[in-house]
Structures are given as structure tokens and as C-alpha cells.
Design goal:
Elements (H helix, E strand, L loop, with lengths): L9 H11 L1 H10 L7 H8 L5 H8 L4 H10 L17 E3 L4 E3 L1 H57 L1 H9 L18 H5 L5 H9 L4 H8 L6 E2 L25 H5 L26 H19 L5 H17 L1 H14 L7 H4 L14 H7 L23 H19 L9 H12 L5 H9 L12 H9 L3 E2 L7
Helix pairs in contact: 3-5, 6-7, 12-13, 12-14, 12-17, 13-14, 14-17, 17-19, 17-20, 18-19
Length: 479
């Protein structure tokens, strides 16, 4: 026999194992209960062998020992030595582990693999059947569309009279209600639009006059101008939407999803159905119609007291805070109101007279010669423009245009938009928004809180959204 390292003689090794008792210990262990899993692993691996009711009953037991005992006693499959598993012959319970004979463990594992493979094949068949069905239905629908277009082409080619009839026919509205041609409303017609009863009650029963109300809020002139500073952006910068919007749908895509798209734009008649909510309830539909009327009053009525503007605007903001779907509807209505203004964008975005401090007279002169008037940009109750620079039509249109974008910036703070709606709104802002409102609206959209705010924007936020910059203002809240 050569005595070299890592060289073994089979006969000598076998004799050594036999004489040291290793083979006898292995035989005794094999004839006993060699497989010893813990109770939690046993219940987790083989609990699905029971029926649904039995499995729920097993999970309701307090300890894993009782669950394993219940599992072994309710297995009605012949996998033991004498049929169903029995205590003593096939398994025994220990303090922390279950002792099983090798044959029972092998049978349990084989049964587990069989059921898992069968279940996997069932899931695969159902998934493939669904995928094949979707593909087949899509192919049939595409074939029907192609066939209908081709048959129409052949019919028009073979019958020229049919082509002339289809070209000159009148499209009948699908809705039961009669379609009315939109028209521009006058100031008197806008003033006569009805107001919701709860808002009308607040407007009628308010106790404070405008001077006392503004003095209570104490919105004064700015003492300085500051910008939001972010770590990831340069100083004096705004937070911008970082994702590409070149592939986003235009806003008209959302508007065209509704049934009626004609009364969209500048000073047109109020809507009689929502734009974005195609399956709105009766309460949501009534709220959308009332909101369209309030928007016309809020944006286009000139010389409206700031207190009434604030109450009506807060009513709309509260609707957006209460219902997330109404926030999207109000936002789309406000954006659609900026379409089709009678003046070009350059004149609408010019500096307004109320932005220039030199055009405002002193409070003493105003109290003697002019009625009191509040300027959102100036933040002064006595700020009145001189007679030498009277307000003309373009000034009123410009201020209405700025008010509409002020409320767009405010409605964007009432909650987060969906991932599909964000790029559509950003694209509309960058294409159609005024220069002073694009950065603040985009900033409001990106930094919208994940948890919706609980209160509508205050008068200070109105002023920030109107002027287009963040200002450091001396402010004292009433409470």
C-alpha cells in the first residue's frame, strides 16, 4: 500500500467506517426520523396541500406547532407507509422541530413539485390565451376598419352622386341637447350670470366693508424682492419641468375628448357640460357649469371689488381642493379661457399702468378727488391712476388676461397633476403663456405638494401670482 497524501483505498476506507461505527450510526439514523425541519418552514412549504377552507383554518391557529399538527392530520393523500401519514409511523413532534421519515419527506416534496408545476402551466395557459385573444381582437378590429374604408372608397368611386352627398351632408349632433353657436357675452350678460346659492349668501351677508377687510389682512407694498433659492438651480431661478414635452399631446386633445368644443375661448357663453370629465355625475356636472359662470365673472368683469373677487376665487379654489377631478376640470377651463383673445399677445403682455408706481397718486389726493380702488399689483387701497392716463379698453383686456393667468397659477397649487396631464399643461404654458406667468406657473406645477393644502390661496398669494415674482412683504395674519 502506497502511503501518499490524497490517495485512498476503497477497501481500507470501508473497513475504517465500519469499525468506527459510522455506517451503523447512519443506518440507525436512516431507519429513524432523519428529516427534521422547523415547524414554520414545514407549514410555509406544504400548507397549500390543504383545501381553501382548511388552509384558512390552519392560518387562524396561534402557534406553528398546532398548525403543523393540523396540517399532518388533514392531509388525505396516501404518502405514508400505510396510506395517510400517521404519528409514530411516519413522523413525531419535537419541542422545536418536526421529525419525519425519509420516505414521507420525499413523497411530500414530489407532491409539492407536481402541484406547483401544474399550477404554473395553468397560469401560463391563461396568460397566453389572454394575449392571443387581445392580438386576435386587435387584428380583427384593424381588418374591419380597413375593410370599411376600402368599401367606402369603392362605393364613392363607383357612384359619384354618393360622393357628392357625403361631402355636402350636415353632421347631426349625437347629444340630445341642441347645439348652439357660441357667441361673445357682454359685460351686462356676464353680470347677470347666476351665482351658487351658498356663495350668494356669503356675498350678501358679509359684515365687513372692503377697507376694514383689507386693513385686517394688512397686505402692504413690498419692501424688497426675493427669489426662491434651490440647491439644484441657479440664483434667482425658478423650478422648471425637467422632462421633455415635445411628444406631449396639445391641450386641444383633451378638449376634443368632450362632446362639445365650440364654446371654448374668450368671453364665450358658459359651458353646459364639463370639458374634461366625460362621465361626470350630476353633482360634478352642476359644479363644472357653475364654475364656468364664476370664471367669466371673475376674469372679465371690470371694476369688480377685490373683496368679491377674493370670495368668488376662494370658492373655486375650495372646489378644487375638495374634489381632485374638479381641480383638473377647472384648470382646463381656465386654460381654455386664454384662447382667442381679441388682441395680439405682445399687447396683452405689455407693462400695465398699475405696475408703474409713478402713475399712482398720493392717498391724500385720491381721497379728495377719486373713489377708492384696490390694485392687486400695488397692494394699496388708495392707489388710483391719474386722469391724465385713463384706463382704456386694452388696459381692461390686459388686466383680465393677467387675472386669468393669476388664477391658473393658484389652481396649480391645489394638488398634484397626473403624469400624463403634466406635460400637456407644460406644453400649453410654454407655447401660449405670457412671459411673466410661464415661470411661476411651471414652478407651481412642479412644486405642487404631495399632500393637498387645506385652505385656498390668501390675498398675498394672489398678488405674487399676479405680479409674477416672489416678494418679501410685511404681512400680519388676522389670527
Amino acid at each position: 500500500m502506497d502511503k501518499q497524501p490524497m490517495v485512498f483505498e476503497d477497501s481500507i476506507v470501508l473497513d475504517q467506517l465500519r469499525y468506527t461505527g459510522v455506517l451503523e450510526a447512519t443506518r440507525i439514523r436512516k431507519s429513524g426520523f432523519p428529516v427534521r425541519p422547523d415547524y414554520e418552514a414545514f407549514v410555509r412549504n406544504y400548507g397549500f396541500l390543504l383545501t381553501k377552507e382548511q388552509h384558512q383554518q390552519m392560518l387562524s391557529l396561534r402557534s406553528s406547532v398546532e398548525a403543523a399538527r393540523y396540517l399532518l392530520s388533514h392531509i388525505s393523500i396516501n404518502i405514508g407507509q400505510n396510506g395517510c401519514p400517521s404519528r409514530g409511523a411516519d413522523y413525531e413532534f419535537g419541542h422545536n422541530r418536526l421529525f419525519m421519515r425519509n420516505q414521507l419527506a420525499v413523497n411530500l416534496e414530489a407532491l409539492r413539485s407536481l402541484i406547483q408545476n401544474r399550477s404554473a402551466r395553468t397560469i401560463q395557459q391563461a396568460w397566453r390565451r389572454r394575449g392571443d385573444g387581445l392580438y386576435e381582437r386587435a387584428r380583427n378590429n384593424a381588418a374591419k376598419v380597413i375593410q370599411s374604408y376600402y368599401r367606402g372608397y369603392l362605393a364613392r368611386r363607383q357612384n359619384p352622386d354618393l360622393a357628392q352627398y357625403t361631402a355636402g351632408r350636415v353632421v347631426i349632433p349625437q347629444d340630445d341637447e341642441k347645439e348652439e353657436q357660441p357667441r361673445e357675452l357682454t359685460d351686462l350678460e356676464i353680470l347677470r350670470l347666476e351665482i351658487p346659492s351658498d356663495l350668494a349668501y356669503v356675498l350678501e351677508e358679509r359684515s365687513n366693508d372692503q377697507r376694514h377687510w383689507l386693513a385686517k389682512h394688512r397686505v402692504t407694498k413690498p419692501r424688497g424682492s426675493i427669489r426662491r433659492l434651490l440647491q439644484s438651480h441657479y440664483a434667482n431661478g425658478w423650478q422648471t419641468y425637467g422632462r421633455p414635452v415635445w411628444d406631449a399631446q396639445p391641450l386641444v386633445y383633451l378638449v376634443n375628448t368632450g362632446r362639445t368644443t365650440k364654446n371654448v375661448g374668450y368671453r364665450l357663453a358658459p359651458r353646459h357640460r364639463p370639458i374634461l370629465l366625460t362621465q361626470a355625475t350630476e353633482s360634478q356636472r352642476a359644479a363644472c357649469v357653475a364654475a364656468s359662470k364664476l370664471l367669466l365673472r371673475l376674469v372679465h368683469l371690470p371694476e369688480q371689488p377685490i373683496m368679491e373677487q377674493f370670495l368668488m376665487g376662494s370658492y373655486l379654489y375650495q372646489l378644487a381642493l375638495t374634489h381632485k377631478s374638479l381641480q383638473k376640470e377647472l384648470l382646463v377651463q381656465m386654460l381654455s379661457q386664454t384662447v382667442g383673445w381679441p388682441y395680439d399677445s405682445a399687447r396683452l403682455q405689455d407693462s400695465d399702468k398699475e405696475d408703474e408706481e409713478s402713475l399712482f397718486v398720493t392717498p391724500e389726493y385720491a381721497s379728495r378727488n377719486q373713489p377708492e380702488m384696490y390694485s392687486i399689483a400695488g397692494g394699496m387701497l388708495q392707489g388710483v391712476i391719474r386722469d391724465v392716463n385713463p384706463i382704456d379698453t386694452i388696459d381692461l383686456k390686459r388686466r383680465a388676461y393677467r387675472r386669468s393667468w393669476m388664477h391658473i397659477a393658484g389652481i396649480l397649487t391645489c394638488g398634484r397633476l397626473s403624469g400624463s396631464l403634466k406635460p400637456i399643461v407644460v406644453r400649453f404654458l410654454r407655447q401660449h403663456g405670457p412671459h411673466r406667468s410661464i415661470p411661476i406657473c411651471e414652478d407651481r406645477l412642479v412644486l405642487a405638494p404631495s399632500i393637498p393644502r387645506l385652505y385656498p390661496p390668501c390675498l398675498l398669494e394672489w398678488r405674487v401670482n399676479y405680479t409674477g415674482n416672489n416678494m418679501g412683504i410685511s404681512l400680519a395674519f388676522p389670527d
